[in-house]
Amino acid sequence: MSASPRRPAGMRGPDKLVFLLALVPYLLEQRVVDVSEATAHFGVGEEEIRDAVRLIATSGLPGATGTYQPNDLFDIDWDSFEEDDVIVIVHHVAIDDAPRLSAREAAALIAGLQYLSASPENAGSASLAALTEKLRAGASAAPSRLAVAEEAADASLAVVRRAVASGRQLEFDYLNARGERRRRRVDPLRIASLGADWYLQAFDHLREEVRNFRIDRMSGLEVADEPIADHSDRAIPETLFQASDTDLEVVVDVAPATLPLLADYLADSTTTEVGGRLRVTLRLAHVHGLKRLVAGLPGLVTVVAPEEARAVVAEWAEAGLAGYPDGDPGASSTPADG
């Protein structure tokens, strides 16, 4: 859009841009707007509205010749504007060229909003409801109605959120990556997500330190009556994965685009290009953690060393392949070669 050196007093450049971007669709939606109505809607002065309308009327997109022709600019009903203080846009440009979401894209986003709306902290959120309606109205066709099914992990997540919000201790049976199940009692501190997985960061009464617990591995959750202790003097890690002297170092080749997804696990910033991929070293608490990491990035991660890690991932992939009765080779897209 073309620019004007004049700018309403008291409004900075970035604020003016945001204001104009909001004003144009507002005027198009309302069709006929009194300056006083626009003033009340945006909370600015009447002269600011008038200056903005004049700027819009001298803005547009240059045509094929690189110059501004009459049809390349916005136009308003000047008689109504100057005589009656009424804004009517009679010609607009570029707005109809904006890309719109397909029905399937809008349906997917709406399903995600429905999932968020189901969480306790978002219950009855007017913002999410308004955004959902905007997605329905702005799609290129009517979005399909999707039902978001609640999984067992969702129910557990709701209990964990309740414990965090109330500041009370939490008890649960926890199945770790080694297949060991044990009853735990913790002071829940923070909920975090990594990809599709939800984690609880909590002070573990058994280990007497802050630990991460994957919520889909919890069962038998009970919010206790006892309040959590004061942990204000305890450093809560910002990242889920924290290095330890007992960590296992694993060398992997990864697709370059995958590297940011592994940032929490990188032992250092050293990378070497090998056959179009990047060879990096990861630090993991134990070798079994590799299985889920590789599963989440099918075909994008190849374990190089140590041999123990290659064997664990290969065994896991072969067990998955064996679950197909006809041994469909298509199922081996997960890197079974370690």
TrEMBL record:
Pfam families: HTH_PafC, WCX, WYL. It comes from the Bacteria. Residues 248-319 form the WCX domain. Residues 15-137 form the PafC HTH domain. Residues 157-223 form the WYL domain. InterPro entries: CBASS_pafABC_assoc_protein, PafC-like, PafC_HTH, WCX_dom, WYL_dom. PANTHER family: PROTEIN PAFC, PTHR34580. This is WYL domain-containing protein. The lineage of its organism: Bacteria, Bacillati, Actinomycetota, Actinomycetes, Micrococcales.
